[in-house]
């Protein structure tokens, strides 16, 4: 009798623990601020490379991977994860100047996103993005005449490309890959050596320099960089071209910032555009649209460099000790206005 009672007690305790765990995960997933602070206790892992080995980056020289022991600074395939303190910005600046580079920056400003976000995006880019380098901004919009004109520094140009207005905001997001692929095969691809593709609803807040350059560049999503793989919001519908199985995926990458050499980006945008077309023919739409397809691409073709959440941070998360110097900040989202 006592044994049965003991088993019942342990069973009740077990299920209470299960329910508590599920409840905390639900609160975490739905973004309750207090609970989100608990995710800092989820370890990011340690650099899998031998401590005696060092990564040498094309633009930053010898990376100081062990200068940030509290965060993950490299991947299992040998790519660096760039955090403040792991690189020398002066070395990166000089290397880019010696290579005589032109760097492209693309942004889509369609509908109300143009009035609400574009001016601040461009003004802060002039203050922080690739300062001292040749830069060409490419603004894609359905209203070229409404693009604000601003005073540009030496060696910096602004080009405006007309795109059609899509019926839904989701289609704006998903058509981006097609448009970028065409631009990279045209004037943008002839003008620039490296290109970064950014969302417009954010602004620069710190130096964003040549330390970010590489053959292909992905960005750790600031809302998901602590999460275990099985909780990451990959596309899970096996019918979709963006689908990843439960045991697949390395990190969750943010489509608000990606980049690389022109040819590498042409391959990326071609893959994502074709995958989205494949889904569309079958009446499917990935959970996070082009971001889902971007994550599938980077699972199949590992990025050469990953930028830490410092390079694209959400102030809504709050202060984090590991986020020392944010480079790019999410602007307040006003979806009720801009997506109508």
From TrEMBL:
Cofactor notes: Binds 1 Mn(2+) ion per subunit.
Membrane-topology descriptor: Single-pass type II membrane protein
Annotated localization: Membrane
An example Gene Ontology molecular-function term: metal ion binding
One GO CC term on file: Golgi apparatus
Cross-referenced Gene3D superfamilies: Spore Coat Polysaccharide Biosynthesis Protein SpsA, Chain A (3.90.550.10)
Binding positions for an alpha-L-fucosyl-(1->2)-beta-D-galactosyl derivative per the UniProt entry: 221, 291
Keyword Glycosyltransferase applies: yes
Residues given in the record as UDP-N-acetyl-alpha-D-galactosamine binding sites: 108-110, 113, 199-201
Keyword rRNA-binding: no
Entry cofactors: Mn(2+)
A biological process from GO: carbohydrate metabolic process
Keywords, sorted A to Z: Glycosyltransferase, Manganese, Membrane, Metal-binding, Signal-anchor, Transferase, Transmembrane, Transmembrane helix
Main location: membrane
InterPro entries: Glyco_trans_6, Nucleotide-diphossugar_trans
Residue sites binding Mn(2+) per the record: 199, 201
Active site: 291
Family affiliation: Belongs to the glycosyltransferase 6 family.
The protein, known as: Alpha-1,3-galactosyltransferase 2 isoform X1
Organism: Hipposideros armiger (Great Himalayan leaf-nosed bat)
Lineage: Eukaryota, Metazoa, Chordata, Craniata, Vertebrata
Name of the gene this protein is made from: A3GALT2
């Amino acid at each position: 009798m006592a044994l049965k009672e003991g088993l019942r007690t342990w069973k009740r305790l077990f299920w209470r623990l299960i329910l508590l765990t599920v409840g905390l995960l639900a609160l975490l997933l739905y973004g309750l601020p207090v609970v989100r602070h608990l995710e800092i206790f989820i370890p990011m892992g340690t650099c899998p490379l031998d401590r005696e080995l060092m990564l040498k980056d094309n633009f930053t020289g010898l990376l100081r991977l062990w200068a940030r022991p509290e965060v993950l600074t490299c991947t299992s395939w040998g790519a660096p994860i760039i955090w403040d303190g792991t690189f020398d910005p002066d070395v990166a600046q000089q290397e880019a100047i010696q290579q005589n580079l032109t760097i492209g920056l693309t942004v889509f400003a369609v509908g109300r996103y143009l009035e609400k976000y574009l001016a601040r995006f461009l003004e802060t880019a002039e203050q922080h993005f690739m300062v001292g380098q040749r830069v060409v901004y490419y603004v894609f919009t359905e209203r070229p005449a409404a693009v604000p004109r601003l005073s540009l520094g030496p060696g910096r140009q602004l080009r405006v490309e007309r795109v059609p207005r899509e019926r839904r905001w989701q289609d704006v997001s998903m058509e981006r890959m097609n448009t970028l692929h065409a631009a990279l095969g045209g004037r943008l691809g002839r003008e620039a050596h490296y290109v970064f593709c950014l969302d417009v609803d954010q602004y620069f807040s710190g130096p964003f320099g040549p330390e970010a350059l590489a053959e292909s560049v992905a960005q750790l999503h600031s809302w998901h960089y602590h999460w275990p793989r099985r909780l990451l919001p990959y596309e899970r519908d096996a019918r979709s071209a963006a689908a990843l199985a439960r045991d697949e995926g390395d990190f969750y990458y943010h489509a608000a910032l990606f980049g690389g050499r022109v040819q590498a980006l042409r391959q990326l945008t071609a893959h994502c555009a074709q995958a989205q077309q494949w889904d569309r023919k079958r009446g499917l739409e990935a959970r996070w649209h082009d971001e889902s397809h971007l994550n599938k691409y980077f699972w199949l073709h590992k990025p050469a460099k990953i930028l830490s959440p410092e390079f694209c941070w959400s102030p809504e998360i709050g202060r984090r000790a590991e986020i020392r110097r944010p480079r790019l900040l999410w602007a307040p989202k006003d979806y009720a206005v801009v997506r109508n």
